[in-house]
């Protein structure tokens, strides 16, 4: 039996509620497909501050480094809002990403057919749904560049500085991830930059073109970031895989997320060197609905599917989860963030149960066909 060690960090707010559903789903997949998922839980975020005085305790970090993959719920909450930013729960996220070296952030932007009415875009633009994969560089660019900081000027005013820098190595490795993903999908890759103004973007484009020679089956095109922001709303179907830098990716992925109607539907994967990877829903700890059985667990459950696909190459298992989610939505079940009149309202636990019931049905069918 295959064995996989997975670090489980539920975090704060709705984190533990959605994680519970993700873990139960993972255990079911383990039973149905005979995989041994060894799950070890640790504290992160506000809960870790309360117990250990820091958001990412050494013990939790060491567990994540030993594990084949890390599942994270969400961190943060008003209880810790008054702490200095270097000590807040959210600091754990940057720490974890940096320490694990996860440089490629994958955000699938998928609008299921049955959720089309939840999207703010017109039906004529959405057509039969949306399926885009955004690949964002996560550990370089302006969020990490030096020099940075503030200084007092002789005239008594203040100046603040951030630096946008990218090395050839950083650009090459993110393009290689994006080309491989594009090759597995439709063979179309759009690179987004600001090459008409920025030297970093000119280097970005140059390297993208060079790497494209290694992936002849993928068609690469380039867009300026301002134009891409418009095109995502005007005609999202022109995109399949988008690759971009840290700052542009941060903004464009949130814009694209809105196309799907709810942040509760969005999963993410962050991949690094040495096969390290972190999987988490895009949403935060949602203190407004925490503890009320109102959170949508589907982003977490689909993050589990991403882990099966990208960390363990368990493609069939990942697909079973995604099909089960789609089928439950097709049957009309909705958590409050995606509710519409005439559909069946359910809470966090019930939604998780429904997905697992559907997984069992799909697995029974596969077994009866001998597959
Ligand atoms: P949020 O994503 O937590 O919530 C935004 C809105 O979306 C809220 O109305 C919330 O109820 C709703 N929402 C979020 N997830 C949902 C789900 N699964 N189902 C249904 N509705 C959902 O963002 P916020 O309110 O800006 O931040 C709240 C806290 O989370 C803050 O402390 C913030 O710093 C933190 N945060 C953490 C992460 C993370 O852990 N990765 C990401 C973003 C924000």
Describe, in plain words, how this protein is organized in 3D:
There is one protein chain. This protein is α/β, with parallel strands linked by helices. The protein folds into two domains: 1-103 and 267-371, Isopropylmalate Dehydrogenase (3-Layer(aba) Sandwich); 120-260, Isopropylmalate Dehydrogenase (3-Layer(aba) Sandwich), CATH 3.40.718. It has twelve helices and 14 strands. It has helices spanning 15-33, 46-52, 58-66, 91-100, 123-126, 168-184, 199-212, 225-234, 246-259, 298-310, 315-330, 348-368; strands at 2-11, 35-41, 69-74, 102-111, 130-137, 145-152, 158-163, 188-193, 219-224, 241-244, 267-272, 277-281, 333-334, 344-345. The strands form three sheets. Strands 2-1-3-12-11-4-5-10-8-9 form a ten-stranded mixed β-sheet, sandwiched between helices. A two-stranded antiparallel sheet has the order 6-7. A two-stranded parallel sheet has the order 13-14. β11 (267-272) and β12 form a beta hairpin. The longest helix is centred in the C-terminal third of the chain and has 21 residues, at 348-368. The protein is globular, with a radius of gyration of 21 Å. The mean pLDDT is 95. The structure holds nicotinamide-adenine-dinucleotide (NAD). Nicotinamide-adenine-dinucleotide (NAD) is lined by residues 14, 18, 74-77, 90, 93, 263-264, 280, 283-289, 295-296, 299, 337.
